[in-house]
Amino acid sequence: MVIPARNEEQTVGDVAGAISRSLMREQPLVDELVVIDSDSTDATAQVAAEAGAVVWSARDVAPGLGSFPGKGEALWKSLLVTTGDLVVFVDADLMLWGPHFVTGLLGPLLNDDQVLLVKGFYTRLWTGSDGSVSADGGRVTELVARPLISLWWPDLAGVVQPLAGEWAARRSLIESLNIPVGYGVELATLMDTASSHGLDAVAQVDLGRRAHRHQANHDLALMAAELLVIAERRRPGGQVPPPQPWLHQFSRTSGQVRQVSRPVPVQERPPARSVSGWQTARHAEAP
After folding, report:
1. Domain residues of the chain, as ranges?
2. 267-284 in b/e burial notation, b at 16+ Cβ within 10 A?
3. Residue 10 region, left (φ>0) first, then alpha (ψ -120 to 50), else beta?
4. For residues 137 and 126, is the Cβ–Cβ distance under 8 A?
5. How far is CA 243 from the centre of its chain?
6. Theoretical Cys-Cys bridge with 179: which of 64, 76, 91, 136, CB 3.0 to 4.6 Å?
7. Which CA distances in Å does 1 have to 8, 229, 241, 270?
8. Residue 134 pLDDT
9. What span, in angstroms and rounded, lies between the C-alpha atoms of 200 and 82?
10. What 3-state class would DSSP assign to 258?
11. Can you give the pLDDT at residue 207?
């Protein structure tokens, strides 16, 4: 069980605590509960540890391999410090969810040996500035991921939440895939699994409803740019993106419009099982 986290002190304790209590102490289903802290500047690590998780700083896992900021990097590093044959990932910013997320994701893997990847789906709730709640969450999914898939990967158009942060996989699969270091990890994993193993290797589970902290549009644009790079790399006949693309945006400050430019994460980690010394890293003692 892996929870990637960055500056989530407000919610990570509830997520880790519920899993530790319900699925480790009351019903011993989860063998490992690991939080990978990705350069947090708040008390995320302390809160997660107090809730019962083993906490690793992403930078401290196999430091000789270097470190990148990003969710995919945290997930990739988690493969070096966990040992379970089945790995479940959930986000640290969940506010409306339940331990059934974990049991639901594990179900298809336990019941069908042919299933390698399980994607959760749910109604994604959006809280407006006036406090109203609607089912309009998942802006990047609807505006970027779903159109991309419909145009270029129509066989995957039946995947309800291609970017779901709640998913599970067999270790044998996830250790065989390239892992983008940023937010493209979920889309890449879905595309690469279907490409290599067929649609029958992918299952979906309805987890009900989900709510989480919303990101600003400017930050979602960076996520969207990452997804476009991931898709272009995997599209038949796609072009190789520049070594370091930049996202150029604009903001108005003190009456003046200024350009703000940010690098788009394009690095991908190689399959974990191909990394020299990865078995030694996997069995390292937790901090």
Report:
1. 2-215+271-282
2. ebbeebeebeebeebbee
3. alpha
4. yes
5. 23
6. 76
7. 17, 28, 33, 21
8. 40
9. 27
10. strand
11. 96
Q: Which two tokens stand for residue 63?
A: 């430091």
Query: DSSP characters for 138-170?
Result: -HHIIIIIHHHHHHH-GGGTT-S-TT-S-EEEE
Is the predicted pLDDT of residue 280 greater than 70, yes or no?
A: no
Return the DSSP state at 108.
H
Query: Token digits for 165?
Result: 């942060």
What is d(CA 210, CA 57) in angstroms, rounded to the nearest whole number? Answer: 27
Kindly give the pairing relationship between strand 202-212 and strand 117-124: parallel
The token pair at 152 is 């270029």
Do the beta carbons of residue 1 and residue 78 sit within 8 Å? no
Distances (CA, A) of 246 to 101, 103, 187: 36, 40, 20
For domain 2-215+271-282, which architecture applies?
A: Alpha-Beta Complex (3.90)
* pLDDT for 219: 85
- pLDDT, tens digit (0-9, with 9 covering 90-100), for 142-194: 999 999 999 999 999 999 999 999 999 999 999 999 999 999 999 999 999 99
Decide which of 282 and 251 is more confident. 251
As given in the structure block, the two tokens for residue 271 are: 């399959």
Type of residue at 92: A
- The pLDDT mean for the chain works out to 91
What is the number of other CB atoms lying within 10 angstroms of the CB of residue 217? 10
Give the amino acid at 82: T
Give the tokens for residue 284.
């390292």
Tokens 């995957």 found at = 156
**3-class secondary-structure state, position 275:** coil
Does residue 287 have a pLDDT over 50?
yes
- Tell me the average pLDDT across 26-36: 97
CA-CA distance, 96 to 102, in Å (whole number)?
14
